[in-house]
Amino acid sequence: MERVALLRSLSTRSTSVCRRILFRPRPRPRLFSSGPHRCKQQAQFLYGAAAFRWQPATSSAPPVRLRRYLSFSPSAVSTSPQPAAQDFDAGHDIAEKLGFDKISEQFISECKSTAVLYKHKKTGAEVISVSNDDENKVFGIVFRTPPKDSTGIPHILEHSVLCGSRKYPLKEPFVELLKGSLNTFLNAFTYPDRTCYPVASTNTKDFYNLVDVYLDAVFFPKCVEDFQIFQQEGWHYELNDPAEEMTYKGVVFNEMKGVYSQPDNILGRASQQAIFPENTYGVDSGGDPKIIPNLTFEEFKGFHQKYYHPSNARIWFYGDDDPVERLRILSAYLDQFEVSPAPNESKVEAQKLFKEPVRIVEKYPAGEGGDLEKKYMVCVNWLLSDGPLDLETELTLGFLDHLLLGTPASPLRRILLESSLGEAIVGGGVEDELLQPQFSIGLKGVAKDDIGKVEELIMNTLKTLAEEGFTTEAVEASMNTIEFSLRENNTGSFPRGLSLMLRSIGKWIYDRNPFEPLTYEKPLQSLKERIANEGTKAVFSPIIEKFILNNPHRVTVEMQPDPEKASRDEAEEKEILQKVKANMTQEDLAELARATQELRLKQETPDPPEALRSVPCLSLQDIPKKPTHVPTNIGDVNGVKVLHHDLFTNDVVYSEVVFDMTTLKKELLQLVPLFCQSLLEMGTKDMDFVQLNQLIGRKTGGISVYPFTSSMRGQVDPCTRMIIRGKAMSGKVEDLFNLMNCILQDVQFTDLQRFKQFVSQSKARMESRLRGSGHGIAAARMDAKLNVAGWIAEQMGGISYLNFLRDLEKRVDQNWDELSSSLEEIRQSIFSRKGCLVNVTADEKNLNHSTKFLAKFLDSLPNSASAELDPLRNHLPPVNEAIVIPTQVNYVGKAGNVYEAGYQLNGSAHVISKYIGNTWLWDRVRVSGGAYGGFCDFDTHSGVFSYLSYRDPNLLKTLEVYDGTASFLRELELDHDSLTKAIIGTIGDVDSYQLPDAKGYSSLLRHLLGITNEERERRREEILSTRLKDFKEFADVLEAVKDRGVVVAVASQDDVAAANEERNDFFDVQKVL
Ligand SMILES: [Zn+2]
């Protein structure tokens, strides 16, 4: 559950300011990442924050390319130049007294940190204590939890331990922390062989509160005594009335049903299990919905007792707090245990290499009807070695991965997509998160007859690359990209200390040196020298040959579309349930109905105030009274408005150039996303796109182009802009602006073949978004019915866009000339000095240094004035809609505009909507409804208040919960503590931790949307002075959503049919997959 999400600043929605989740926390940050196409979802999150925040494709979603660079996020520490100094020697005597042996200590220059490894003498628990000057402190406790079957024990346990503990005896301390702490990260993940519990905060008092709740949760959870927690989070039979049908319920059960509805996920799981048939990776730690109901409470308890023990724990502390205090907190917990045999029993055994390649075929649920011919997927996977590799080999493999797949210009990726054998890449390239590294690559959207050709193309391409090597330009571009990201060390909203922890734990968990993955400098330099001395071929060819071409441990996974699979699975489940029910006596059934009732009653009964008070909370005195200030200087360069943000950025210059998009004709709108991709991936007269991409890689830290759309409060017309965003080291700012200029003006829209690939890739991406983030699609659709900005966004990123792409795919060949001139027309109408705005973030010296290059760039922009157009005023018809897809779980949304109902914005709305999400919706939609998530969102710019659910077994029942929100607020009783908690939690969201580039960017968006500092201060005061009466008044506002809101559900055929029968054609039905 990544809760990175709740994040919304006062001022902006649909912008990166407000949604931390933009930068999707990656459970597996690595030194090198091969990009957005990875299909393996190896870790399950406790809370789907990533999933919970939808991002219209057209808003400021950080450009995929840029995001990829950001996610390299290698090493940590501080935006300030000075390393921290800590008095360690004094600390070590105390460590000894507190019961810890110091094993080793190292200064890690890559992250300007001192790291000490301790062992707890009594239990053998290992602790790494990292000290530096990063205020974003991180704690994590990790247990090795290799499963023996696919009942999902580790995953269910991960959810359950956060449901109350000895010291915090309430239903969900985790939710109380979400409500009322200043956390900058709070979540838990289950990997195939380990479970991690990380927290982060910049406030020391808050940080230690979080640490204490997490430590008590993992060591002394209530769930091992309370069967009902196991039922709620894992699985149980639900029977409301002995006469009705019985169903399965459970949060993890439904979460995994959602996972098993997504072809990419099924492929990832099938590949992993086939590569590792003999060890723990051959089963699913997340849980297979068909197998989860085999799990007993006894097994569940036994697993906790065995593995959640200090002897099997690895603990991480990081940041600028006192290292002695950390050990003091830990010893209080660890000293309560004796040593256990857990560490030996939890050791992960290696998979031996195959002698022969293997081939498997899997089916995935496809929609009924429709063309299934080009719906096959094929992925070729290798297990690279029978044991762990040394660091230098791993680094070389990571580098090779970037060379093969890292950018659109990388040869393996490019050749596969150019072949037209498939629509999009699958497989994540090199995976080095588990005991043994793997390599996976393939295509989806493949015709049955072409499967063999894809495999052949992969093998032949790799063979050719081994024979011929890579060009110097390609290697230089990869090297610069990697070094830039190492230097920039930008982890987005993901705490740097957590990114480091996950990297370290990837070795530590296998009893290897935990510091090794943090010190990349030496092996990187030696790799660079080897490339310089021996040439790229001598370095990479033997690696490709040894680990891939001559490696018999190869598994080819073929995925076939099966239109009957979804309904067959459902029928199978029904049959099992009917059998179980048939074997029950009348007494059993009555007992089950009683138990169902009892569980629901317990779930819906609020915790007593004394239990709630056990969770420590800050007081309002701990909260800064003023919003965070971002220095902003508004000036003028050659007649263009320029915003300067003087912030320390370690010599990186960040810049955004913003153009007006209202000058664009309506009929061209849907081409905009493809236009943006063409700018970066089509090439100019002098450079093909490979050369252009390599040049971007060699000179900059990345460039992206994307549209941005939002409503503006109090105005009819929305803000619609196009943004080109880039970053470079200060010595290369001239190159950055030259490249921006080249992208905006010199790219030629003449490559039909490339354009066709963009269309099919975009279509494939939209289709997988529908299955994986149906709530985002539903939200965009509702917005499109309620306001113009929403309509524009949906045209460029919703169902309307998918329909457009499908139609375009058919006519692109015959209409190419017209399309090509339309792309040119978009350029002409948008890129002009008129209406342009520039944002630059760097320190003063670099701001000054970059101005002359910016001036030159602005001079070269055309100064054309576009024809005046009538403003767009479109909406989709406000009817209730069901989007039917093959799925076992639904996404249900309802939304209405509260400004139209007369509501005047007040900061209290943030407190109230967060509170509704964390109480009413969490309890009813997730806890008792069995959905993975239920939440609400208030767009303060448009006034749209929306409810959404995620991986939801219900449909109409969820709508009833939404409609009950107003009554919930009216009847609400809120004591002083709960109110304070709600306020503090909201401030935590508003003050979300931001690295300097994000601060500058947020400030730009506030400028675009007309949010002043005075307004931010006023909203903050309103948040801080929120009272119970504000909640009651908001009930009337939500009454309007209940009565006049629109409903959009992305749901299964059966559930939609049942709903339409029950409610008399409530939904207009559209079948899209
Ligand atoms: Zn989960």
TrEMBL record:
<dbReference type="Pfam" id="PF05193">
    <property type="entry name" value="Peptidase_M16_C"/>
</dbReference>
<keyword id="KW-0496">Mitochondrion</keyword>
<dbReference type="GO" id="GO:0046872">
    <property type="term" value="F:metal ion binding"/>
</dbReference>
<dbReference type="InterPro" id="IPR011249">
    <property type="entry name" value="Metalloenz_LuxS/M16"/>
</dbReference>
<protein>
    <recommendedName>
        <fullName>Peptidase M16C associated domain-containing protein</fullName>
    </recommendedName>
</protein>
<dbReference type="Pfam" id="PF08367">
    <property type="entry name" value="M16C_assoc"/>
</dbReference>
<keyword id="KW-0862">Zinc</keyword>
<keyword id="KW-0479">Metal-binding</keyword>
<dbReference type="GO" id="GO:0004222">
    <property type="term" value="F:metalloendopeptidase activity"/>
</dbReference>
<keyword id="KW-0482">Metalloprotease</keyword>
<keyword id="KW-0645">Protease</keyword>
<feature type="domain" description="Peptidase M16C associated">
    <location>
        <begin position="559"/>
        <end position="808"/>
    </location>
</feature>
<dbReference type="Pfam" id="PF22516">
    <property type="entry name" value="PreP_C"/>
</dbReference>
<dbReference type="GO" id="GO:0016485">
    <property type="term" value="P:protein processing"/>
</dbReference>
<keyword id="KW-0378">Hydrolase</keyword>
<dbReference type="Pfam" id="PF00675">
    <property type="entry name" value="Peptidase_M16"/>
</dbReference>
<dbReference type="GO" id="GO:0005739">
    <property type="term" value="C:mitochondrion"/>
</dbReference>
<dbReference type="InterPro" id="IPR013578">
    <property type="entry name" value="Peptidase_M16C_assoc"/>
</dbReference>
<dbReference type="GO" id="GO:0009507">
    <property type="term" value="C:chloroplast"/>
</dbReference>
<dbReference type="InterPro" id="IPR055130">
    <property type="entry name" value="PreP_C"/>
</dbReference>
<comment type="similarity">
    <text>Belongs to the peptidase M16 family. PreP subfamily.</text>
</comment>
<dbReference type="InterPro" id="IPR007863">
    <property type="entry name" value="Peptidase_M16_C"/>
</dbReference>
<dbReference type="InterPro" id="IPR011765">
    <property type="entry name" value="Pept_M16_N"/>
</dbReference>
